[in-house]
# Entry
Amino acid sequence: MNLPLFSVQDDPGPDFNRLLASRGDAPSPIDGALDPHDYRHGTTCVAIRFADGVLLAGDRRATTGNLISHRTLEKVFPADRHSGVAIAGAAGPAIEMVKLFQLQLEHYEKVEGTALSLEGKANQLSQMIRGNLPMAMQGMVVVPIFAGFDLSRGEGRLYEFDITGGRYEEADHASTGSGSVHAGTVVKLGYRQGMDTAAVTDLAIEALFEAADEDSATGGPDPIRGIYPIVATITAGGYTRISDDDLAARTQTLIARRQGN
# Structure
């Protein structure tokens, strides 16, 4: 049997599904594949380094297909005293992964008598994401951001991941979720070294505001219902969530500035 020959335009390359399609055979769907309209998705989150540590922020909307299924979803969680996780993707597995991650870090600290290093925590989360790969192949993707304050270095650090568990440390900022391109662009343009807590909080609020303006799956601020993004800082003093009252005032300042322009 001779190998098939293709013209440059029709060469399917390494894509087996494309090869089947070129021969008139429809690729078979994955057995048991889930319809994305059957479960909730959470988006969008950002992480930004600043002078005293690192900030995590996420919008509050969850979607099921084209429907808004939840308006106040929590997407930013403390992992332990000096680290946190922001989730995007299939909400159910993501929240379950975070709870198990929190338990593992607490168990390690009780057994060993000391907290796991920040890099060790990132490695542990990487393995958990890798373990979710079979579900990710069926559509239930979980792609978090991990960030924390490294007590040994005296600085904030942050990590991105892919669905295979690949772990990538970022120098200054990271984003994930369906609105990550828009939020990440705002952060990239507005970021500068040595930002204080107020400046980095305003930048995160603006990033999520712009993402919500462009991405229907990202929820914007809702003053009528009193819904604002979850924003938390992680410094040498630990994990601190910024109050809704503070976020409301900063959001109103942003809106007033936009109306003025």
